[in-house]
């Protein structure tokens, strides 16, 4: 009986070893690279996180997206922009890649390009509240109050009690001398956030 048990035991042990080892060996180099890069990012070792991702030598969308983010964190804004452009080229309908590319572009002060990407997002997702608000804010900063209110107004229609959009709408109206409308928006912002010093200060100026 002993002679029969030994081969059976070794066979079971070998099968168990294969079952246990397979998930580790089946884990792709891409998965390992992402995992390592997250660990390095958590430790703010951005250069190392970039290194493990670059070593993949892959032009996959998710790799370019990840490298765009990591180069942004590493303050290499031109490389960040380049990788985000690759991601957008790979997935032309990607909203997340466009939200990514505005980060290095804003850091570089290229606000025309930032605005262009927000407008591109709105072509894909017209009701995107973040893109609408930020587009409205850029137009407000350029004193293009008509367009500022178009985009800010879209957010308020979807989220009538949104603090940021009501505050911005109040500023837009105040800049145009439309004090009664401005007051309405500032009051709503204060109702949302009674501690808002900015909204209270704006009301005092009316």
Task: Quickly list its features.
mainly alpha, Serine Threonine Protein Phosphatase 5, Tetratricopeptide repeat, 206 residues, elongated, disordered N terminus, single chain
Distance between the termini: 98 Å
Number of self-contained structural domains:
2
Q: What would CATH call the architecture of the largest domain?
A: Alpha Horseshoe
Name the helicity range.
over 70%
Total number of strands: 0
Order of helices and strands: HHHHHHHHHHHH
Please write the CATH class name of the largest domain.
Answer: Mainly Alpha
What is the CATH topology descriptor of the largest domain?
Answer: Serine Threonine Protein Phosphatase 5, Tetratricopeptide repeat
Major beta sheet, specifics?
A: none
Bin the strand percentage. under 5%
What best-fitting shape do the alpha-carbon axes yield?
A: elongated
């Amino acid at each position: 009986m002993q002679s029969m048990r030994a081969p059976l035991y070794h066979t079971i042990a070998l099968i168990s070893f294969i079952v246990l080892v397979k998930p580790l060996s089946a884990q792709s180099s891409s998965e390992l690279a992402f995992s390592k890069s997250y660990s390095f990012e958590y430790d703010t070792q951005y250069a190392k996180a970039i290194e493990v991702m670059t070593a993949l030598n892959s032009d996959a969308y998710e790799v370019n997206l990840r490298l765009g983010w990591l180069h942004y964190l590493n303050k290499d804004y031109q490389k960040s922009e380049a990788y985000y452009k690759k991601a957008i080229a790979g997935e032309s309908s990607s909203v997340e890649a466009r939200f990514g590319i505005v980060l290095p572009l804003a850091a570089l002060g290229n606000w025309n390009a930032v605005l262009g990407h927000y407008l591109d997002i709105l072509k894909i997702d017209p009701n995107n509240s973040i893109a609408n608000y930020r587009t409205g804010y850029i137009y407000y900063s350029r004193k293009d109050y008509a367009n500022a209110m178009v985009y800010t107004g879209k957010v308020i229609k979807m989220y009538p009690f949104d603090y940021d959009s009501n505050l911005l709408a109040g500023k837009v109206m105040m800049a145009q001398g439309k004090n009664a409308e401005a007051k309405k928006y500032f009051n709503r912002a204060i109702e949302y956030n009674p501690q808002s010093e900015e909204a209270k200060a704006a009301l005092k100026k009316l």
